[in-house]
Amino acid sequence: MIEKKDISIVIADDHPMILKGLNEELTTNNYNVVGQAINGMEALELIMANSPNIALLDIDMPLLTGFEVIKKAKEKQVDTKFIVLSFHKENDYISQAKALQINGYLLKEDSFSEIEKCIECVLNNEIYFSRAFNADSLQSVSEDLKRIKHLTSSEKTILKLVSEQMSSQDIAETLFISIRTVEKHRSNIITKLELENTTNALTNWAYFHRNVIKEL
């Protein structure tokens, strides 16, 4: 097991007191904090410059969100493991984290011991979600993502447009296809996602999952 002093960490949060407290906890416990950022752009620059073992990021930050930082860093193929630290417990955020294959998701209410447990797990190539999350919610999100992956490229395109609240008529005109073709795709999507075939069921589901769908 790698020693704490050899674990390099970048931390980012736009709340100065939270950032200060997190830094003090980490350094007091012998972790090597190599950079602190108060916005997403600074965080990305620090990650690219230092290639830390771990990046502990808030989700809601100016300039770039934590999710955007992770996406851009992954596109650059950095070796950093990413842990988000947030107040958000909603399934939409869990979905985005899982879709981005984020290594860890902690809540700001979690104890420092849980942060340490998370760091240990992700360095061992394990995925760690806060114990405060409901296991059923995590499972439900995972199943939704699996179903989305079974869609064809055409169905994913239709789903993206549905998530933007576009009607079948608008989708047909945008893609230069018939309304009948759009409706056939919608029917297939509903079946694959295991949704009830009711009015607006797909539209509502797609809108709720829009942040994940836009990454398809």
TrEMBL record:
<protein>
    <submittedName>
        <fullName>DNA-binding response regulator</fullName>
    </submittedName>
</protein>
<dbReference type="InterPro" id="IPR058245">
    <property type="entry name" value="NreC/VraR/RcsB-like_REC"/>
</dbReference>
<keyword id="KW-0804">Transcription</keyword>
<dbReference type="GO" id="GO:0000160">
    <property type="term" value="P:phosphorelay signal transduction system"/>
</dbReference>
<keyword id="KW-0805">Transcription regulation</keyword>
<feature type="modified residue" description="4-aspartylphosphate">
    <location>
        <position position="58"/>
    </location>
</feature>
<dbReference type="InterPro" id="IPR011006">
    <property type="entry name" value="CheY-like_superfamily"/>
</dbReference>
<dbReference type="InterPro" id="IPR039420">
    <property type="entry name" value="WalR-like"/>
</dbReference>
<dbReference type="Pfam" id="PF00072">
    <property type="entry name" value="Response_reg"/>
</dbReference>
<dbReference type="InterPro" id="IPR000792">
    <property type="entry name" value="Tscrpt_reg_LuxR_C"/>
</dbReference>
<keyword id="KW-0597">Phosphoprotein</keyword>
<feature type="domain" description="HTH luxR-type">
    <location>
        <begin position="144"/>
        <end position="212"/>
    </location>
</feature>
<dbReference type="GO" id="GO:0003677">
    <property type="term" value="F:DNA binding"/>
</dbReference>
<dbReference type="InterPro" id="IPR016032">
    <property type="entry name" value="Sig_transdc_resp-reg_C-effctor"/>
</dbReference>
<feature type="domain" description="Response regulatory">
    <location>
        <begin position="8"/>
        <end position="123"/>
    </location>
</feature>
<dbReference type="GO" id="GO:0006355">
    <property type="term" value="P:regulation of DNA-templated transcription"/>
</dbReference>
<dbReference type="Pfam" id="PF00196">
    <property type="entry name" value="GerE"/>
</dbReference>
<dbReference type="InterPro" id="IPR001789">
    <property type="entry name" value="Sig_transdc_resp-reg_receiver"/>
</dbReference>
<keyword id="KW-0238">DNA-binding</keyword>
